Amino acid sequence: MKFQFDCVFYYVSDLEAAVRFYRDLFGLKLRSRDVVARFDIDGVLVELVPGTPRGKGNGRLCLKVGDLEAAAAELQGKAIRVSPIEDKGQGKLAFFHDPDGNEIALWEYRRD
User: Do the strands 37-41 and 29-33 form a parallel or antiparallel pair, or are they unpaired?
Assistant: First the structure.
Protein backbone atom coordinates (compact mmCIF):
# COMPACT_ATOMS: atom_id res chain seq x y z
CA MET A 1 0.00 0.00 0.00
CA LYS A 2 1.33 3.43 -0.91
CA PHE A 3 0.78 6.13 1.70
CA GLN A 4 0.79 9.80 0.70
CA PHE A 5 0.85 12.85 2.96
CA ASP A 6 -2.60 14.38 3.20
CA CYS A 7 -2.67 16.90 6.04
CA VAL A 8 -2.16 17.77 9.65
CA PHE A 9 -5.40 18.52 11.44
CA TYR A 10 -6.65 19.91 14.70
CA TYR A 11 -10.00 19.33 16.31
CA VAL A 12 -11.69 22.61 17.26
CA SER A 13 -14.72 23.28 19.45
CA ASP A 14 -15.89 26.32 17.45
CA LEU A 15 -15.06 26.24 13.73
CA GLU A 16 -16.09 29.87 13.11
CA ALA A 17 -13.87 31.18 15.91
CA ALA A 18 -10.99 28.96 14.80
CA VAL A 19 -11.23 30.14 11.19
CA ARG A 20 -11.18 33.77 12.34
CA PHE A 21 -8.17 33.04 14.53
CA TYR A 22 -6.08 31.30 11.87
CA ARG A 23 -7.19 33.50 8.96
CA ASP A 24 -7.55 36.93 10.58
CA LEU A 25 -4.97 36.84 13.39
CA PHE A 26 -2.32 34.61 11.84
CA GLY A 27 -3.03 35.68 8.27
CA LEU A 28 -3.09 32.14 6.92
CA LYS A 29 -4.69 31.62 3.53
CA LEU A 30 -8.02 29.81 3.71
CA ARG A 31 -7.76 27.27 0.89
CA SER A 32 -11.27 25.80 1.08
CA ARG A 33 -14.14 25.32 3.45
CA ASP A 34 -17.02 22.89 3.79
CA VAL A 35 -17.45 20.68 6.84
CA VAL A 36 -13.80 21.48 7.69
CA ALA A 37 -11.63 24.52 7.02
CA ARG A 38 -8.39 24.02 5.08
CA PHE A 39 -5.37 26.29 5.21
CA ASP A 40 -2.22 26.12 3.11
CA ILE A 41 1.03 26.78 4.96
CA ASP A 42 3.92 26.62 2.51
CA GLY A 43 2.32 23.73 0.66
CA VAL A 44 1.32 21.87 3.84
CA LEU A 45 -2.41 21.32 4.26
CA VAL A 46 -3.64 22.17 7.77
CA GLU A 47 -7.28 21.38 8.51
CA LEU A 48 -9.54 22.54 11.32
CA VAL A 49 -12.09 19.83 12.11
CA PRO A 50 -15.09 20.33 14.40
CA GLY A 51 -14.99 17.80 17.21
CA THR A 52 -13.18 16.50 20.26
CA PRO A 53 -9.70 14.95 20.26
CA ARG A 54 -9.81 11.16 20.49
CA GLY A 55 -6.59 10.61 22.41
CA LYS A 56 -3.71 12.44 24.01
CA GLY A 57 -2.88 15.73 22.38
CA ASN A 58 -4.68 17.28 19.49
CA GLY A 59 -2.47 17.27 16.38
CA ARG A 60 -2.83 14.36 13.98
CA LEU A 61 -0.84 13.15 11.01
CA CYS A 62 -3.26 12.19 8.27
CA LEU A 63 -2.22 9.89 5.43
CA LYS A 64 -4.22 9.67 2.22
CA VAL A 65 -4.88 6.19 0.83
CA GLY A 66 -6.63 5.04 -2.33
CA ASP A 67 -8.41 2.11 -0.68
CA LEU A 68 -8.97 2.44 3.06
CA GLU A 69 -10.23 -1.11 3.53
CA ALA A 70 -7.11 -2.53 1.89
CA ALA A 71 -4.80 -0.23 3.86
CA ALA A 72 -6.49 -1.18 7.15
CA ALA A 73 -6.25 -4.88 6.30
CA GLU A 74 -2.58 -4.56 5.42
CA LEU A 75 -1.82 -2.79 8.71
CA GLN A 76 -3.85 -5.32 10.68
CA GLY A 77 -1.86 -8.06 8.98
CA LYS A 78 1.21 -6.47 10.57
CA ALA A 79 -0.44 -6.59 14.03
CA ILE A 80 -1.32 -2.88 13.96
CA ARG A 81 -4.74 -2.26 15.47
CA VAL A 82 -6.88 -0.02 13.25
CA SER A 83 -10.13 1.61 14.37
CA PRO A 84 -13.40 0.83 12.64
CA ILE A 85 -13.75 2.76 9.38
CA GLU A 86 -16.05 5.76 9.61
CA ASP A 87 -17.95 7.24 6.66
CA LYS A 88 -17.59 11.02 6.93
CA GLY A 89 -19.61 11.94 3.85
CA GLN A 90 -16.70 13.33 1.85
CA GLY A 91 -14.63 10.25 2.48
CA LYS A 92 -13.76 7.48 4.89
CA LEU A 93 -11.60 7.74 8.00
CA ALA A 94 -9.80 5.31 10.32
CA PHE A 95 -7.10 5.65 12.97
CA PHE A 96 -4.19 3.70 14.38
CA HIS A 97 -1.46 4.48 16.92
CA ASP A 98 2.29 4.44 16.84
CA PRO A 99 4.23 2.74 19.68
CA ASP A 100 4.10 5.96 21.76
CA GLY A 101 0.33 6.25 21.43
CA ASN A 102 0.35 9.03 18.83
CA GLU A 103 -2.74 8.76 16.68
CA ILE A 104 -2.35 8.56 12.90
CA ALA A 105 -5.35 9.01 10.63
CA LEU A 106 -5.99 7.25 7.32
CA TRP A 107 -8.25 9.07 4.88
CA GLU A 108 -9.82 7.95 1.60
CA TYR A 109 -11.49 10.71 -0.41
CA ARG A 110 -14.93 9.88 -1.78
CA ARG A 111 -14.80 9.14 -5.49
CA ASP A 112 -17.63 10.79 -7.40
Answer: antiparallel
